[in-house]
Design goal:
- The complex is a heterodimer of chains A (65) and B (426).
- Chain A is an alpha+beta fold and 65 residues long.
- Helices cover 23% and strands 31% of the residues of chain A.
- Chain A is globular and about 30 Å long.
- The N and C termini of chain A lie close together (8 Å).
- Chain B has 426 residues and is of the alpha/beta class.
- Chain B is built from 10 helices and 25 strands.
- Chain B has helices spanning 5-8, 24-35, 61-64, 77-82, 142-152, 165-176, 192-209, 306-320, 391-399, 404-407, and strands at residues 16-20, 41-45, 85-88, 93-97, 102-105, 110-112, 115-118, 122-124, 136-138, 158-161, 181-185, 213-216, 220-225, 229-234, 239-241, 244-247, 251-253, 269-270, 283-285, 290-291, 335-340, 343-349, 356-362, 369-375, 378-385.
- The chains are: A alpha+beta (65), B alpha/beta (426).
- The A-B interface holds A 10, 13-17, 19-20, 23, 28-33, 49-50, 53-54, 56, 58 and B 28, 32, 35, 54, 56, 306-307, 310-311, 314, 335, 337, 344, 346, 387-389, 391-392, 395, 420-421, 423-424, 426.
- Chain A: It holds the Pfam family Fer4_15.
Chain lengths: 65, 426
């Protein structure tokens, strides 16, 4: 089982709250763009829910893969 | 060994939690309670008539006309109903019966609670003098933003009173709409309190390049006009013609309804690091109305940041369903951002007013940079001026209490790729 992670790039404002909270899924590239894994393990469900809550742009979607 | 008397009493969560204040901190507390497994009653009380909405976009996307007001909504009626959250809107709390554990609402309703979460936020600091009937606005509520956005359509001459984040974001939106904008600020160094003189000056320069004029070091003496505002008079006699005046001179916590209670109310409700009020274990406070401990500062203080409201809501929801020994305390580094002409300024940490600023890294065109605030060789805060990708490093440095010497090694020499740090625009 795993989770699908999607960031709506028209909403993302690069606050980096998700990078801070779940660095194993979200990161900044050297060029300053947000990059993320498209899938994550179920064990990260709570962390990803936190990232969704912490996102000022409400840009993160998490659902079943 | 048998359990002692204290251990034999299993923790019993409250039966009914009442959250007063239906903005970000309030709704996130209510939703967070369900996420934390709370199955008791949750009531969310709001003074304003609208479902919970987000305030940062009011001075940004809503003013620019990029977002309809609906898009600021933080939760739908259906979502709140699904979560079993009772919502009472347009009915401000007017008094607290602490002994009887009841909140009195403006309508006369009395709402009983086992645990109360105060999330009543803050309201604009009142004007010290009379104003014309129309053309003068605060910018705090959804209807304020819509009124100002609509007023922009009439091509007004705009005067902004107060050069804080709200005032300067409003100036940015007005200038982008092609309107003539003048900002009045009694302090000689606008934004220095928030960003330090170095970054504050850089942000003012950005505004000036977009045509915004500043009158600093002068306070407003009077606002003239009959039914509609016509001009703003400064204390040096300067008269600024104005069709639209927007005031952003700070906010005061909404604690008037709690007067007479045991709560410590000096500039917000004093709480411990778990979010519980210092004088009553059944009362908690979150968001702009709350004064929590902040790392590196001896006294608890209000932090009017979006992320602080969210963090506090999460902590209180978690703690409300747990015994005291298992409660979490605040740990996050304060973070705030502000948007101007598509450029984002991001600040982590909480600097003292007199802390020095040092630039660590600058873009080749000189317009974007990373700076740290420091005192006694230790970082108190850091800011990214149009360089969001530097934030993780800055957060780590500020959180770990890095020295200025350590911080200077964070970034290599400036890049020669001029496009690299351009902030994406919508």
């Amino acid at each position: 089982m795993s989770l699908r992670v999607h960031v709506d790039r028209t909403h993302c404002e690069l606050h980096g709250q998700c990078v801070e909270r779940v660095p194993s899924v979200f990161r900044f590239t050297d060029g300053g763009d947000l990059d993320h894994l498209a899938e994550a393990g179920d064990d990260l469900a709570d962390d990803l829910a936190d990232a969704q809550f912490l996102c000022p742009a409400q840009a993160i979607e998490v659902g079943p893969a | 060994m048998t359990a002692g008397p204290a251990d034999s009493q299993a923790h019993r969560p409250p039966d009914r939690v009442v959250v007063v204040g239906a903005s970000l901190a309030g709704v996130r507390t209510a939703l967070g309670l369900r996420r934390a497994g709370f199955t008791g009653g949750v009531t969310l009380v709001g003074a304003e008539p609208w479902l919970p909405y987000d305030r940062p976009p009011l001075s940004k996307q809503v003013l620019l006309g990029e977002w309809t007001p609906d898009r600021t909504r933080l939760a739908s009626a259906e979502q709140l109903a699904e979560q079993g959250i009772e919502v009472l809107l347009g009915d401000p709390a007017v008094a607290l019966d602490e002994d009887g554990r009841r909140v009195l609402l403006d309508s006369g309703a009395r709402i009983g609670f086992d645990a109360l979460v105060v999330a009543t936020g803050a309201a604009p600091r009142p004007w010290p003098f009379p104003t014309p009937a129309s053309g003068v606005h605060d910018l705090r509520r959804l209807d304020d933003a819509v009124a100002i956005r609509d007023a922009f359509d009439t091509a007004p001459r705009v005067v902004v009173v107060g050069a804080g984040f709200v005032g300067t974001e409003l100036a940015s939106a007005a200038a982008r709409r092609g309107l003539p904008v003048t900002v009045v600020e009694p302090r000689p160094d606008p934004l220095a309190a928030q960003l330090g003189t170095l970054a504050g000056t850089a942000l003012l320069d950005l505004h000036r390049r977009h045509g915004v004029r500043f009158h600093t070091g002068h306070a407003v003496r009077a606002v003239h006009g009959g039914d509609r505002v016509s001009s703003v008079e400064l204390d040096d006699g300067t008269l600024l013609d104005a069709d639209l005046v927007v005031v952003g001179i700070g906010v005061l916590p909404n604690t008037g309804w709690l007067r007479g209670s045991s709560l410590e109310l000096t500039d917000g409700i004093r709480c411990d690091g778990t979010g519980v009020a210092t004088t009553n274990p059944a009362i908690w406070a979150v968001g702009d109305v709350a004064r929590w401990p902040v790392a590196g500062h001896t006294e608890p203080r209000r932090v009017e940041h979006w992320t602080s409201a969210v963090e506090q809501a999460g902590i209180v929801a978690y703690n409300l369903v747990r015994p005291a020994a298992e409660r979490r305390v605040t740990a996050a580094t304060p973070y705030v951002w502000t948007d101007h002409y598509g450029l984002k300024v991001q600040l982590v940490g909480l600097a003292g007013a007199d802390d020095e600023s040092t630039v660590l890294h600058r873009s080749p065109d000189g317009e974007r940079f990373v700076a740290v605030r420091h005192a006694g060789g230790r970082l108190s805060a850091a800011l990214a001026f149009g360089m969001p990708e530097t934030l993780p490093k800055l957060r780590t440095a500020v959180r770990s209490g890095a020295s200025l010497t350590e911080a200077t090694t964070l970034f290599g020499p400036a890049t020669t790729d001029t496009d690299r740090y351009v902030v994406p625009r919508r």
